[in-house]
Amino acid sequence: MELSVLVVVVGLVAAFVFGVSKTAVPAVGAFGVALLATVLPAVPSTGVALPVLIVGDVFAIALYGRHAEWGLLLRLLPSVVVGLAAGWALVRFADPTVVTRVIGAVLLLSVGGALVRRRGTADDDAPAAAGGPVALLLGAGAGLSTMVANAGGPMMTLYLLRMRVGVLGFLGSVAWFFAAVNLLKVPFSVGLGLITAESLLVSAVIAPGAVAGALLGRRLVRGMSVEVFRVVALAATAVAGLWLVVR
Predict the structure, then answer these.
(1) What is the pLDDT of residues 61-98, one digit of tens each?
(2) What is the spatial distance between Cα 145 and Cα 84, in angstroms, rounded to a whole number?
(3) Residue 219: which H helix or E strand, with range?
(4) Dist. CA 100–CA 96, nearest whole Å
(5) pLDDT tens track for 15-37
(6) Is-contact 18 182, C-beta < 8 A?
(7) How far apart are CA 30 and CA 237, in angstroms?
(8) How many CB atoms lie within 10 A of CB 83?
(9) Which of 1, 35, 111, 114 is the most buried (most CB within 10 A)?
(10) What is the secondary structure of 42-84 as a DSSP string?
């Protein structure tokens, strides 16, 4: 894994996107993952991305952590653990490209379902059951997709949009969720040989990009209405799903 000028420049941009995803629109993190994979081998690039994402998590918790909806997160935890274990097995034994495309297809179908639900008038403002089957599937999908491709943001976005939480509650919940999940992923990634001394050097060099992105993301989301935030989050999730399918 060569630390070339191209790797540093593209890595900084990817890290910047990671930072924005942590403090503004979680779904855009998938584009940072894809960008980093253009200058590094796809699977090893996830090991470079993980420590950078954790840096972003620290900023997100500092800004929004006190607003987290803990009840929603705790109900989701068992299904996320199942998804993480499934993702570890897929990284070890399956073709990650195929799995990533399947995740993208599921996201597109889920966004379609969310749009249909938004068009309803009777229960448009009512949250879905936090522990219902769809929510549990989204939790498992978030664990699986974050393990396979560091792309759990879109699945988590769909879950929290379904729960109709406010902007700060959304971002606070995402902050704690991914901080916990990313820390859980570290031993898996070390065991798979994705995090090494060499990958940590690259992570350290590009991490300042995540700091800059996190600070900009905070400015972007400040004052944004709940409805505008939901539309932006849903649109970003749809684009991320399409990107995962075609990349």
Answers:
(1) 999 999 999 988 888 888 888 888 888 887 777 776 77
(2) 8
(3) helix 197-221
(4) 6
(5) 999 999 999 988 788 788 878 88
(6) no
(7) 9
(8) 27
(9) 111
(10) HHHHHHHHHHHHHHHHHHHHHHHGGG--HHHHHHHHHHHHHHH
